[in-house]
Amino acid sequence: MAKRTTGIQDKDFRRWIASQPCMICGQCFISQAAHIQKGGMGIKGCDSSCRPLCADTIRGHGCHSKLDQNKIKLPFELRQDIIDSPVYHHWQRGDMARAVYNIVRFKSDLQNY
Questions:
Q1: How far apart are CA 60 and CA 10, in angstroms?
Q2: Which end of the chain is less packed: N or C, by CB atoms within 10 Å?
């Protein structure tokens, strides 16, 4: 079981993130709340850095697994922009349109990786 760093832990936010389409491939209905920022092996970042990535299926590995296994390599600047994007801030205030926008705005950049 992975340890958590100190920071935001919000089950409702993780559930909402998992309900969104994958931010890399756009796959619907199989997303997971992926902790994009990691503090090291087995240590998850705080929940505000969660973003929707698709899960593995019988057809193959999803974007979540590919990112964890370094099969999708994001440049540091893009990864940092994704983490710094204020998704949690807008979700917490009930501004779902801006929260979703801060997820999908990276889709065209992410398709290159």
A1: 29
A2: N
Spatial neighbors of 6 by CB under 8 A, at least 6 apart, are 46
- What pTM, to 2 d.p., does this model score? 0.85
2 contacts 83 by C-beta, under 8 angstroms: no
**Amino acid identity at 78:** L
Token output for 55: 């899960």
In this structure, what token pair is assigned to residue 71?
């099969």
Sheet holding 43-44, edge to edge: 3-4, 43-44, 38-40
Q: What does the alpha-carbon distance between residue 77 and residue 63 come to, in Å, rounded to a whole number?
A: 19
Cβ–Cβ < 8 Å for 22, 52: yes
Q: What is the pLDDT of residues 51-107, one digit of tens each?
A: 999 999 999 999 999 998 889 888 888 989 998 999 999 999 999 999 999 999 998
Q: How far is CA 14 from the centre of its chain?
A: 9
